[in-house]
Amino acid sequence: MRRIRLAKACVVLIVAISCAYAGARALPSHASDDRMIADGTPGHAGGRLVIALRSEPKTLNPALALDEPSRDVIRCLTADLIHINRESLKTEPALAKSWSVSRDGRQYTLQLRRGLRFSDGEPFNADDVIFSFQIYLDEKVDSSQRDLLIVGGKPITVVKVNDFAVRFELAQPYAAAERLFDSIAILPRHLLESGYRDGTFSRAWSLSMPPSQFAGLGPFRLKEYIAGQRVVLERNPYYWKADRAGNQLPYLNEIVFLFVPSEDAQVIRFQSGDTDVLSRFSADNFAVLQKQQATKGYHLDDLGAGLEYNFLFFNMNDLAAQGPPEIAKKQVWFQDLRFRQAVSAAIDRAGIVRLVYNGRATPLWDQVTPGNKLWLDEKIAHPARSLEQARQLLESAGFSWKSDGALVDPHGNSVEFSILTSSSNAQRTKIATIVQDDLSQLGMTVQVVPLEFHALVDRLTNTYNYEAAVMGLVSGDADPTSEMNVWLSSGETHLWHPRQEKPATAWESEMDRLMQQQLVTLDYAKRKNLYDRVQEIVAEDLPIICLVSPNILVGAANRVGNFRPAILVPYALWNIEQLYVQ
Amino acid sequence: MLTQRRKLAWPVVALAAFCCVVLFAGFFAPYDFATQDRDTPFAPPTAIHFVDAGGTFHIRPFVYGPGDSGQSAESSAQGSDQPYPLRWFVLGAPYKIACVFTSRAHLFGVARPARIFLMGSDGYGRDQLSRFLYGSQISLLAGLIAAILSVAIGILAGGIAGYYGGWIDELLMRGGELFLALPWLYLLFAVRAALPLHISQWQVFLLLISVMGLIGWARPARLIRGVVLSAKERNFVLAARGFGASDAYLLRRHVLPQTYAVLLTQITLLIPQYVLAEVTLTFLGLGVGEPMPSWGALLSSLQQYSVLSSYWWMFLPALLLIPLFVVFYAAADALQELHKSVPL
């Protein structure tokens, strides 16, 4: 059970959202239906796009999908009510053409677009919305979206106002309420209700079902699935967006998702022209691709810092009662702020940026990256690396050095610990190796232990059998509410000491208060002040030692038009209905 | 007889020379294996010049120093025109000889800020040549320990099985077959996963090597059993037995000495085999951890497409291994020939 919850928590944080359009505005009122106009350059209809997925999607059921490949495909098949624009990072209308908020901030009334049809031609109305939320909120379905829809400890209630209006009622005011709707795909009641009543919903929309059983409100619909090879999507003729020239979107006739298991293989397929769009690849591969950029007919974009932050943290769980005694002994060091400050001062962040990311990354001193312009606290200091300062800090904390340079604590124990990383993430292992070398200059003996990802997560969140780890988190959204799980002391992803009953330190209790407060404050400037303080706490009290944020790197064949990658998932494909081929 | 001995000579000399270099890796390596030069990741092998930009010939070879800092990593390795002569017998990073004596003498080097990377540098700016030499210590040691372990157990099990025969023989040989059928890679994964985290990489490595050696005893045991089977029927053995020699005496004095030639061949064959096993293990992330070098660790960066396609000098350790294995197998071959021609 704990594992499942953790999976959910990860999803809230790490995973993302569904696909849509940029800076759209509503059609003039004389239009016969409620089609939306997208603001991209009008393109040509037809053609197809080939994209590689890291693995086969496990399911196409939006309520059950947890893995990134499944979500990548589902984003193309479905639509949400209110959407986060990936360029402006602000909300905008989607299936809901407008909405109003009650004065107390607890009731949202959404007006739905009229005359829309699912990809099988059946009409869409408020019953589909009610049905969808019924599924997402059903404990038996156990969807990953359920956690998002619990506000103030109570599930959101959904009320049908009329066929094209629904009201959402929240237990308390919620600053980011509009952003909740992003990623929540509206399901067709006419196809899924009988299965839901029979209790067979958990098997609905698995990939083995015939394409006629699927329908959504997204720009594409399922055409075929060949196990082990590909998923093919075709244009949804009933899609509800048009371009400025009045042409029905999407432009593409087909999208082919190939299953290409490793990043290197994906890079090679892209390089040879087998696939048209590439995202989520390393700076090393960026450099390789760059060399042939001019001759091979593709172009690459470095979008700058994304929302991922990589950090080092120490085990600060309460291990006195249980847990390995040899780790509990070392926690005396880890819990000493001066020790953490010394470690932070000794780490060569610029070296990490240069060696691990070829310069395509940004050094970090707190969790908000420069890519998140709405929430970045510019006042956070960026102290340069200083071994001298690190030694002074250690000295003031009672540490000393033996004649051979090894660091010993006040009780004469030499300072040795291990840093865990995920063996599937070459960059993080490399970061840990650089940190190991930096800390060896302070006389610390550090082992780097790469572990398989699930074994690593198990140690970090279940057994607490670790000393330190290098990890990374990707916010699903730029808004701090997506980070609640990380900064609340009771949170599942409060990695250094998760699921506390009451905050263990004064600064954790301050952080709890700030995070709770920003959640119910509706004014952006006030919220910004609150979250700035959270960033200051992270930078000063160093629960995690933030290191680096990699840049978002994407590539596309030159023939792909309207290619406007963004720093939010799904980096390159968020405006897939507007992509066209020349 | 004589030709065979001569045939044996060159691989043995080559091996001895290589082992000598490896033993004194600290002296032959210009740098420490763990020293990172973060300004020069993936620097190509340093070019050694005799003629400077002005066309003047220098008797003492020299290298060019680093360019302006702030250049991109790939081009900064040899940027400036400032020549730094190659010096012999210089003082540099301290190292230990045979884990006891500390020395700072190195065979060659250049004055800082210039650096000499004869085999290029890796992604952390560490000298590949130094890492290769230090790594050879670990890889060869791994091969040696594992080979000796499995041969030692092989002698014991094979000797007893061959000499006593009967149910003991059955038990040992069928047990050996069980070991042969073991998927050792998965076994090692399991062993690695079960180990606590705070033990050092060295201990992990020695443990894994020992496990490898321990489970590899079946093949040498079979061979030895065969030799023992025929040896114990020889007339002089039977005669000694007739005079009342004990089993232990017979095994020690008459039977096992006849297996020595086979053993020697086995060890020379097993060492490269276990060295390769070490390479495989480290390649898969089971061997020594960073920053310790080993041949597997040196090759493991080639798993990445970007390294494979951009930095040819990362292949150099792999290329060096080829002649080395040829020498090993040549020695094993020659030993086998020698053993065949020696009248038992």
Task: Describe the model.
The complex is a heterodimer of chains A (582) and B (344). Chain A has 582 residues and is of the alpha+beta class. Chain A has 2 domains: 47-303 and 559-581, Periplasmic binding protein-like II (D-Maltodextrin-Binding Protein, domain 2, 3-Layer(aba) Sandwich), CATH 3.40.190; 308-551, Dipeptide-binding Protein, Domain 3 (Dipeptide-binding Protein, domain 3, Roll). With 344 residues, chain B is mainly alpha-helical. Chain B folds into 2 domains: 46-116, no CATH class; 132-317, MetI-like (MetI-like fold), CATH 1.10.3720. In chain B, the strands form 2 sheets. In chain B, strands 1-2-3 form a 3-stranded antiparallel sheet, with no helix packed on it. A two-stranded antiparallel ribbon of chain B has the order 4-5. In chain B, α3 packs antiparallel against α4 (166-181), α3 (128-164) packs across α10 and α10 (260-283) packs antiparallel against α13 (316-341). Chain B is elongated, with a radius of gyration of 25 Å. The two termini of chain B are 14 Å apart. Chain A binds chain B through residues 264, 267-268, 282, 284-285, 287-288, 324, 326-327, 348, 351, 354-355, 358-359, 416-418, 420, 423, 426, 429-430, 433-434, 436-437, 440, 447-450, 455, 465-467, and chain B through 34, 36, 38, 41, 72-73, 123-125, 193, 196-198, 200-201, 285, 289-291, 304-307, 309-310.
